[in-house]
Amino acid sequence: MTTVDDVSRPSRLAEPDEGITVEELRLAARNHGIPLEALRYDVTPAGLHYLLIHYDIPDLDPATHAVTVGGAVDRPLALDLAALRARPRVTRRVTLECAGNGRALLHPRPVSQPWLVEAVGNAEWTGTPLAPLLREAGIAADAVDVVFTGADHGVERGVEQDYQRALPVADALREEVLLAYEMNGAPLLPQHGAPLRLIVPGWYGMAHVKWLRAIDVRTEAFDGYQNAVAYRLRRDADDPGVPVTRIEPRALVRPPGFPDFMSRTRVLRPGPCTLDGRAWSGHAPVVSVEVTTDGGATWAPARLDDQSGGEFAWRGWRHEWTAEPGRHVLGARATDASGRTQPVEQPWNRGGFANNLVQRVEVVVLPG
Ligand SMILES: Nc1nc2c(c(=O)[nH]1)N[C@H]1C(S)=C(S)[C@@H](COP(=O)(O)O)O[C@H]1N2
Ligand SMILES: [Mo]
To answer: Is the pLDDT at 3 greater than 60, yes or no?
Structure first.
């Protein structure tokens, strides 16, 4: 392991046959995914929601914590939790997905948090809308970016920093963006950003800044690490790339039957079997889900559940299948109203972001 890293050196790609390293394992043991059987719940229980934490969980006191609104504003503000709770209260179901979901399945593998497909959750977030607060503070006419700063601190490729991410002003002013203090009807848990976090419906996880302590309006583009260096779609290390923003469409199958302990291969008895799962997109509503039971050779339309969870929540789907003895590879493919769908070739980029390649669920159907 290198102890003194340097941002001028690119992050590492694994060698062609290199297995998961101890460093990746260490990250994976901290940052867990959703157990795929928990796709059954419309609202993901807090303890089953995926988790991604770059540094350490900071220890904040909800009784004294306050968030400031400053920078290019007419009237800087500071609000504690009581002040935020006294403001209009909104609850939204929002599918959160880590931008690195699918990274460990890429060839070559970008070395970082090694997600397979499980970095997703669909919780109910309660808080107060951000836009009215920004308007009360009076943002400058020439404002460009709004920077959100967390109370967590660390170093990444040699750059010491508080976790900070900016949104373009127009995105920060969207009415669905929340300053959230509750998850699933209870105060935020320490690991999910207690006592306050940002929720940016439709965007990949990195935008939803946890342990939020400052909101700064800027008249120049923010060039902090998480915007300018990390979270960009780059072809190679020299490509300036484009920012990672909204969630690409994805469907997941809730693995049927029961698992083999080590291989996680699914074991099923033959006969009729209702396959189900979830589908989401941060660009536009999901309009169709197709299911394959032969590793992608053929596809059949799934039935979609209603969109009662709201426009930012994942959508349930189901499909009737007659399981015949033998080995099968299941998968599902979501398409959204913008026409985006899931690729059949891996969408490779240097950081391993937004890999929404169709999932492969290996099943063995027992003899009758
Ligand atoms: N302050 C802060 N906010 C953060 C992070 C972080 O490390 N620090 N991680 C981000 C990333 S990369 C993701 S995917 C989501 C994960 O949110 P969750 O752990 O509540 O699921 O939080 C985001 N917000
Ligand atoms: Mo993430």
So the answer is: no
Taking the centre of ligand 1 as the mean of its atom positions, its distance from the CA of residue 352, in whole angstroms, is: 17
Taking residues 278-306, report their average pLDDT: 98
Q: How far apart are CA 290 and CA 79, in angstroms?
A: 47
Contact status, residue 247 vs residue 97, Cβ threshold 8 Å: yes
Would you call 135 helix, strand, or coil by DSSP? helix
Q: How high is the pLDDT of residue 10? A: 86
Show me where the domains of the chain are located.
Answer: 4-243, 250-365
Residue closest via CA to ligand 1's atom 21 equals 51
> Which pTM does this prediction carry?
0.97
Any residues with Cβ below 6 Å from ligand 1, and which?
Answer: 49-54, 96, 98, 121, 150, 152, 163, 192, 205-206, 208-211
Q: Which of ligand 1's atoms lies nearest the C-alpha of 149?
A: 1
Choice from 148, 156, 210 to test ligand 1 binding pocket (greatest atom count within 8 A of CB): 210
Which atom in ligand 1 lies closest to the alpha carbon of residue 162? 1
Rounded-to-integer distance, Cα 64 and Cα 80, Å:
7
Position 150 scores a pLDDT of 98
**Is residue 90 within 8 Å of residue 133, measured between CB atoms?**
no
Give mean pLDDT, residues 6-32.
94
Please give the class, per CATH, of domain 4-243: alpha beta
| pLDDT digit string, tens, across residues 211-231 | 999 999 999 999 999 999 999
Fold assignment, 250-365:
Immunoglobulin-like (2.60.40)
Average pLDDT over residues 56-77: 98
Q: Which atom of ligand 1 is nearest to the CA of 50?
A: 21
